[in-house]
Amino acid sequence: MPAFEPDARLVDDSYPVTELPLCQLRLMDDARFPWLVLVPRHPGISEIFELDEADQQQLWREATRVGQTLKAALQGDKLNIASLGNRVAQLHVHVIVRHRRDAAWPGPVWGHGEPEAYDLDGLAAMRGRILAQVEGLDL
Known about the structure:
This protein has 139 residues and is α+β, with helices and mostly antiparallel strands. The chain has 3 helices and 5 strands.
């Protein structure tokens, strides 16, 4: 079996945050939205149904618990969880904390305006906030 590597586009568009039991947790490089991506460490998988039942449950456990925790910490108004894969076939799940005041509200974040890259301080601060929230979660 080949080693796990996140798709090149995910690598280009996001930063690694931490490793969860099933997924690599990444932060999308768009400071307009608290936007995470969970990438299951299974090479060659593009659909959720390709995971065995235990990993399907683990994927949703990680997505929902990380999302719930960050929504509360960031005082979000809504949590978006989605697996699209139209541009990146590798299975990945978007977890986005939404605010009524955000740039795309109430529409989707995809294709709305131009991404605003994190500066180094903003990236460090957001990664630190995420790590502080996910450390110790029962995943």
